[in-house]
Amino acid sequence: MERERHWNHMMSDLTALDALGWDAVRKALNRRVVVGTIRFVPSRRNRVWVVETDVRPVVVKQFLSKGCGTEFEMMIRARQAALQVPYPLHAGDNYLVSEYIAGEGCEMLINHMFSSVAADGIGNWLARFHQRLGEGKSAMIMSDAVLSNFLVSDGQVYAVDLEDCRLGNPLEDLGRAAASILGSEPFFTPIKFDLCMRMIRSYERYSGIQTAESVRPFIADHLRQDANMRPLFRRTFIGAAKSIERGWPKLA
User: Fold this and answer.
1) How many other C-beta atoms are found inside a 10 Å radius of the C-beta of residue 170?
2) Which among 27, 44, 118, 243 has the fewest CB atoms less than 10 Å away?
3) Per-residue pLDDT for 16 more than 90?
4) pTM attached to this predicted model
């Protein structure tokens, strides 16, 4: 019992929003707030909460990296470019508060519902992001364009987690998104290849750039990187990477 109480106490410490977090919420909403519920959301790198208040629901993100300023700036720039991202409300002390977007995650929509809306929307969003936020001959890229960083709300795809944005080659993003579609369960099935190609064709339609062939080496590189994190499926991922380097599979 004592061990269980210690574990529960430790978990509550990990998931609790501290004084700096509450201060960020008050500054974001410009007033004292009455809290209804608070929900801890699992995140790969940071701590994230959805906080229901008497004003509006907000997302509070505590950065364990140095990406808070980058994400706040990129969200503002994306909004100014008419791209679908949550509205940033406040940033400070490694906390970012933004509006809460109600919707379904693209990871679930593509892996379980095989949603063509999600696949088309990701391609469209990435194309607009690359074109509208470019600097000279370089484009701004997400760097982490995985399925879990997109959601669908009212039929539109929104992107979240922009902390890794930098100037780079747009094919890096397109390859990352394609590898995320193909390399999430169910792996490398015909319907996943179909959704992957839908995403790429959507990107091509908006950007006006043919990418289906030029993106293949980037997909293969990302699959090889993913293989290192999936030792049980390493041979499957390496085999898929080699196959995509040779060409796209012919689907019936």
Assistant:
1) 25
2) 44
3) no
4) 0.90
